[in-house]
Amino acid sequence: MMPAAGSAYTYSYAVLGEMIAWVVGWSLILEYSLVVSAVAVGWSGYAVGFLSGLGVDLPAALVAGPHAGGIINLPAVAIIGVVTGLLLLGTKESATLNAVLVVIKIAALVVFVAIALPAFKPENFTPFMPNGFGAPFVQTGVMAAAAIIFFAFYGFDAISTAAEETKKPERDLAIGIVGSMLVCTALYLVVAAAAIGARPVADFADSPEPLALILRQMGQGTAAQWIAAAAVIALPTVLLAFLFGQSRIFLGMARDGLLPRRLAKVSARGVPAVVTVFTAVVVAILAGLLPLDELASLANAGTLAAFCSVGVCLVVLRIREPNRKRVFKAPLWPLVGAISVIGCIVFFLSLKPVTQVGFVVWNLIGVAIYLLWSSKNSRLAKGEEEAA
Predict the structure, then answer these.
(1) Is residue 231 within 8 Å of 260, Cβ to Cβ?
(2) Could you tell me the keywords of this UniProt record (predicted)?
(3) pLDDT value of position 94
């Protein structure tokens, strides 16, 4: 319906107004920045393990942040720099490379499953829920895990940020979002089942390279090295997608005057170069200094806020504009909208208190910026045009 850069921010701007859109956009900035940083830290773990397998051991001070006794996670910073360079080449070029790397990544997961499944032991799943189901405000059990594993589903929002550069958004976005959700969820389930079936969770839960570690423990050293190599080569696809998405969210907000408009400047290659480089610098600093679990947890809070707003937008638009042309219609929209909103709230309440506080503080800073600067410099404030 709204094939423009910005994803949930754009929908909120058009449906719920500028103030709510700012909060959503500000939450998306948190989400995308932290997910890029978190994935870069994850990539670093596999890269260090891969190089170690080749006999190259990097100095401990340069592969971990201060939280782990190091100085900076240099590999995480380096890969963000490489991916930023690819993005600056242009959308078409980076998308082609991304497609090739995704094939490598899926092939590596299939190989892992093929090797691990024959060693499957049902007893590794007993007890099936050792910490119970959990509940809101209780940071243990399945609920707490579900709130964290939300981290694995950000890509569906990232797809929508590319709407403006999609040839047939009414067809391609629906296929991309729904199709990738089905394929990815199936992969997540199969890989997780194969991993736990092959080795007890305690053996690999704290590893920076769990799949490679499982194969080593099974005596499959060569396969482990290949899996690590595939991760090193292919994990940057996630960084590529989210750095791309982050820059497009900045682009949408800058066009609306909620951020400095010079950030919306696009290069000759069609890339918002200024905002891409700025984003890369910020996420590189975070990746170099912070641990993976803290980055992922706080990123989830921003995602849940954005997804909650999409559920609200769905309901509001169906009531306010029932006859508007819709190429794709969510079925049972009252139920889908309600479950989306309630589910996101329950997941948020299942996050750690420190994460919830961090999210609130981040948005208080955002509201202050909006009231002091953005609300006075936006397109609406200057009467340039009404909200779409």
Answers:
(1) no
(2) Membrane, Transmembrane, Transmembrane helix, Transport
(3) 63
